[in-house]
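User: Could you check the structure of this?
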Amino acid sequence: MAVKGGIKFLRKRIRAIQNLRKVTRAMKSVSSVRLRRAQPVLQISSEFSKNMERIFKISYNGETENAEKYFSIKTDSSRKLYIILGSDKGLCGSFNSNISKFVQSNINIQDNSEIWVFGRRLIRILSKKFQIQPYEDFWRDFSYEKFEKVYNMIEQRIISGELAEVYCIYTLFKSMGTQVPYIERVFPVSVSLVWEPKRIFEPSFEEFARFFIMSYVRSKLFFCFQSSITSEHAARMRAMDMATQNSERVQRQLILQMNKARQEAITKELIDIVSGKNALEAQQV
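Assistant: Sure, the predicted structure tokens are below.
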């Protein structure tokens, strides 16, 4: 079978695929290193949030059995804040599109709601559908200090009574191969309470609850942010691994086509040589 462009064209394509495979392998290695760094932070953040909830359960000054209690700060506002976490960079599979589809199909965003979107890729998608407040290039050199600046803005608005509810929509990291879009209400705080003896707080349980609410919101939000960036690294590592495997498969196919084209060219040349030889012998006779 003749190949368009010939053997020279196939050799160029093979070299291009080889260079592409080097890039995808390098990106996979980088994402793997970043993932290994992010996982311990995510685990510590998750354990910290669970411990805070456990402390509050055993400290609740009431006699409620197997009930769920909501702790909030008094406000007359009904305004909701949606924090949507994506990524600044691409090449991470369906990481951003899954969040976008989840938001558009599962979330009923009202007119008096605010939407904060973190990540350049997700901003491009959601800005066409909603009125958003964008945060571009947020994930570059992500750290707790960066998160703290965002949280301080949220805390001030909660304490001042501007926000009634805060939701975070992010990608929940379950394992290396499983990351799913998820929505979590981080404010008001809700915990499942188990009956415990009454405890006396000094100065008061209300002040303790107020401190707990904001500390718990901080820990849950940081877990959401850390889970999102950990999921991004895992998604990119998996995407680059698949790209590397695909490039290897394409390279094998191209090498096979090139070998067939070479065999055809050699066979054609041999046929021409034999035909020429037979023609000369026929003339001599």
